[in-house]
Design brief:
The protein has 64 residues and is mainly alpha-helical. The chain is built from three helices and no strands.
């Protein structure tokens, strides 16, 4: 493929994404990418060895 043709394709793709962005349909993340409810977040944190969400929310920062 020629370099000029490739640049035209890239420009067409960029312009189509920008046009779709105006409608807000193609750029929004799907529902499956949402964090989920607090229970799910807390259990993922515990599975990674972190403190549960309830404890993480109640821990205060150190005094300065």
């Amino acid at each position: 493929m020629g370099e000029e043709k490739e640049m035209r394709i890239i420009a067409a793709v960029i312009s189509s994404v920008l046009l779709e962005n105006e409608f807000g349909e193609s750029i929004e993340p799907s529902i499956g990418r949402d964090e989920g409810n607090s229970w799910s977040i807390s259990h993922r944190r515990m599975a990674l060895g972190k403190a549960p969400l309830m404890k993480a929310r109640t821990v205060r920062s150190t005094k300065r």
